[in-house]
From TrEMBL:
It comes from Epibacterium ulvae. This is Amidinotransferase. InterPro entries: Amdntrnsf_FN0238. It comes from the Bacteria. PANTHER family: AMIDINOTRANSFERASE. Pfam families: DDAH_eukar.
Length: 304
């Protein structure tokens, strides 16, 4: 089974003090305020997280869990933004837009990966935060590991110069585009509007504002052998694009229960030709503006 796009192992950060991050609310239109008390919200998020990990492990996915007991990192449950891993033994560390998200980077996570997997080098872009530049990992970039294309919705979370630098280092072709929601706001992270599996791609083409660019993106996805599943803006609001393909006992598409409920029977049928659906219920965590894809940092490294 080709696991290049769908890793067998993932890193997840267990949140003990989860809450919706005030520092990201201005540009993350997907965030909502929880109606529960902060303690109740944190407890719910922890329970959702533990259930999700159990389901992933039951499906045969290796999950490396790290606890975050700190109180200054409300978004730590979304580690895919501060690091990514790549075949050949490469790790990238990214500069984050919100100051409190910069505290999420943890060397113990990287050291554990070095211990369990073959790591050749760690390329650290995080110092560019000093220049107010950010490129928020696989939130800002949706990576086609097979076709070597980095799809990027332009935003303050994805600096174009940094994107070029990443693509040069990691051998990806950058494919950037303007994307807006129905209210005309920039899409803050590319991975809310698209996700790429081995044989299919989920994407809301309507959010790409330039029609010529929209056609180019669709064409590039099809050229790499993907069936394009065109999502509606309403489906994106339900986090239907925020999904990640993983390899366990079989290939699975991990997405939220809310996202699955938003998909049509026809869309589900296309996915199920290639992967089984693995819905995880994370409604509290979704109040922070991210869903299942954001919670999972794929490990594209070879085990030692």
């Amino acid at each position: 089974m080709n696991t290049m796009q769908a890793p067998r192992a993932v890193v997840m950060i267990r949140p003990h003090h989860f809450h919706s991050n005030p520092e990201t609310r201005d540009d993350n239109a997907f965030q909502t305020l929880s109606r529960s008390s902060e303690n109740a919200t944190a407890e719910s998020a922890l329970a959702e997280f533990d259930a999700a990990v159990a389901q992933l492990r039951e499906a045969g996915v290796t999950v490396h869990v790290f606890d975050d007991t700190g109180t200054e990192t409300p978004d730590s449950v979304f580690p895919n933004n501060w690091f990514s891993t790549h075949a050949g033994g490469h790790i990238a560390l990214y500069p984050m837009y919100a100051p409190n998200r910069r505290k999420e980077r943890r060397w113990d996570v990287i050291e554990t990966l070095k211990h369990s997997y073959r790591v050749q080098d760690v390329i650290d872009y995080s110092g560019l935060e000093q220049d107010n530049l950010s490129l928020e990992g696989t939130g800002a970039m949706v990576l086609d590991h097979i076709g070597r294309i980095a799809y990027v919705a332009k935003s303050n979370r994805a600096d174009p110069v940094l994107l070029e630098r990443f693509c040069t280092h990691f051998n990806f072709e950058p494919m950037a585009f303007d994307a807006k929601d129905s209210a005309g706001r920039d899409i803050y992270h590319t991975n809310v509007l698209m996700g790429i599996g081995t044989d299919y791609a989920l994407i809301c083409l309507d959010m790409i504002t330039d029609t010529a660019r929209r056609a180019e993106v669709k064409q590039r996805l099809e050229e790499t052998g993907r069936r394009v599943i065109d999502l509606t803006m309403d489906q994106i609001t339900e986090f239907a694009g925020n999904a990640i393909e993983l390899t366990g006992k079989t290939r699975v598409l991990a997405l939220s229960a809310r996202a699955l409920a938003a998909l049509t029977a026809a869309q589900i049928a296309i996915i199920e030709q290639s992967a089984s659906l693995l819905p995880l219920s994370v409604p509290t965590i979704e109040t922070a503006g991210g869903s299942v894809r954001c919670m999972i940092a794929g490990v594209h490294l070879s085990a030692r």
